[in-house]
Specification:
14-stranded mixed beta sheet; Putative adhesin; Toastrack_DUF4097; about 60% strand; elongated; about 325 residues; 13-stranded mixed beta sheet; mainly beta
Amino acid sequence: MILPVSHPRAVAVRVLVSLSLLAACGVAFRVSLKPLPPVRLASHVVSEDMNGVTAAQITLDTRIGAVRVQAGRPRTLTGEAELEGTLKETVSTANGVKTVQYTQRVDDPRRASMLFRAHSDRQRLDVNLPSALPIDLDVRGGFGETSLDLRGTGVESLSVRRGGEDLDLILPEHEVTARIDATFGETRVTGVDSSGTLDVRGEVGRITLDLRDAKATNVRAQTKFGDLDVSLPARFEAVLRTESGEAEIEVPEIRAASSLDVLSKFGDVTVRVPKDANVRVDAHMRFGDVVVPEGFERQGASYVHRGRGPLLIVRAESRQGDVTVREVEQ
């Protein structure tokens, strides 16, 4: 027999079910908030001689705490840490390449959860990289700010996988392949005289790339929820994506044929190009307008400005928002 919703017995059943759920939630809440033991930090010293090797593979793996990396002595890896738990060091050498890994071990797994990210403020790992050695650098971690100043280092390959907090990266002054995966927080990358490939991927957070003083660069940036603020170098190939957010792109100078592919599913796209440059804009949108400067001629779905210098091809798409092209003085 199916009782009407307003029947007293049906109401009583719903009340009992609700009370049972509340009781279960209360038990789970009490268990999840069981007091953690006090945070006890331990001091650690990082030191590894790199003489006699031709290259290094270095991994920094922390669960909680800030990570700061910069250039140090020519052939010595040094640093210090204030971390909870232990910092395990693993070292091996093969074919002239030394592999060094530092891994933080936290006794209570709840420390590494988002609920207890506040503990990251007191913890840190500071590392000084060898400045005269080719390096593959792998930075992994959970919660804590990350600051990587790779100027003056020999980093040729970089992988960063962080869970939360902001990330600041200054690229080295040579060719490098860099891949960044961030879950939460703003990602900021600066490149001066750098070149190579940069791939930045985020879940939630703004991505800011200042590459105007970099050399030829292949750039890819993608975030699900966040704005894109990108300044590109004079030679580039760029693919930029945001699921929900504004995209502000600047091309201050064009010295070689370059292409820009930018998409915002929900948000405006603005592209700044040099005044009197040779530009073709392919704009696509479902709901929104296309705004281009005077002097751009419409040719089908494209807008063309026959200016000076190499050709810049811009493919801009916003599924719900405007596409705007502006000219700036060089």
